[in-house]
Write a structure and sequence with these properties.
Blueprint lengths: L4 H19 L4 H6 L5 H20 L6 H21 L4 H18 L5
């Protein structure tokens, strides 16, 4: 399936709703500043952030959205692997994993 502006906006809307629901309406920084690990919230924040990055880069119009999404996914996946190798905290891993999973769903809506 080709990534379109409409599919990207739909994915962003779902990610935003999931983030708001998981945070219970509180700002994500509230948890982080308090030192409370919140991998479930960070997972949804990462999804929203990765999709937002695709939208920002896509607006530059140099490449098709699908190519932009693939490039962003490659960077996020590489960063995830690096953080895992360096024993990053659960929030970082969840954040990056959320982004990679959201990009996988955007690129292949039939993926789990």
């Amino acid at each position: 399936m080709t990534v379109t502006a409409a599919t990207l906006e739909g994915a962003l809307a779902r990610a935003r709703a999931d983030l708001q629901a998981s945070a219970g309406g509180a700002a994500v920084c509230t948890f982080t500043r308090a030192g409370i690990p919140v991998p479930s919230v960070k997972l949804h924040e990462g999804a929203w952030a990765a999709l937002s990055e695709v939208r920002r880069q896509g607006r530059r119009g140099r490449d098709p959205l699908e190519q932009v999404a693939q490039d962003v996914r490659s960077r996020w996946a590489a960063d995830l692997e690096l953080r895992r190798q360096r024993d990053a905290g659960p929030d970082w891993v969840a954040y990056l994993l959320g982004g990679v999973e959201a990009l996988d769903r955007l690129l292949d809506p039939d993926s789990p």
